[in-house]
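Exercise 7.
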Amino acid sequence: MSRSETILFASAFDDAVAWRNAILAELPGAAFQVYPEVRDPAAITTAIVWRPPLGFFAPLTGLRLVVNLGAGVDSLLGRGDLPDVPIVRMSDPGMVSMMTSYVLFSVIRHAREIDSFEEAQRRREWRYVHPRPLSSVKVGVLGLGELGAAAATALAGLGFDVHGWSRRGKEVPGVACSHGMEALDALLGAVEILVIMLPLTPKTRGLVSAERLRRMRPGAKLINVARGPVVDEDALIAALEGGHLGGATLDVFVTEPLPVTSPLWAMPNVLITPHLASITVPEEAARDVAESIRRVARGAPPLHLVDLRRGY
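Solution. The predicted structure, written as tokens, is:
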């Protein structure tokens, strides 16, 4: 790899030093710069980004590839400064494992009623609730992409009765799969724990609407590890306050950080985490990133290519 390969890293959330070390271990001849310290914008050939500011791409006239530091590319949709170059998303084993572990934790916590024991402990109350067999717990997973399919497979492996839904037909071993809007409404009424793992696109924004929340079983639990705007947040708050939903585990929100004025903070039946269900592990992801850079340099398609028209 020649010095003509110049990589610009831009993320306020990821460790630039870890990424520099991981990338240069794979591409020892490349130059690596960290935004906003850009010596020659026109020399940048690859941009590795997470939520770059508007106008970021405009001066990068030599850009050949954009690498998005995450599975969701919603922050790159509809941008006027984005050049017509390949865009790839992260897809590394570390990211899949972290997301799967978070989903398993969240589903098990609800299925085993751990939140009720947490509440009982605060009251110093010895409260026994007889455990149910996991096979009797119906779990719905909305979104059967790489992350969703892995989580659904892991849940089924534990013995949960798993139902998966996607916009287009998919098959996941051990999971009852369905697709289409009619099937979505049927699934919502059947499951008692709903896990949202859909990408944010114009078609999924607000998909879990007030009407669809009302279709869910009384007392059902909701887990959102996708993007906040996939769910009507005001309707979710109303469903939780009114008791139609029994609880929620939320890692993503319409506004992040979640404003201190949000009613969600004070709800005892809601667990809030700060958008960390899954992160990219540089040491594991750098191999694919480097391979995509090599492929584009020789005129071949990169790995994990995104179709911006579909939003994923």
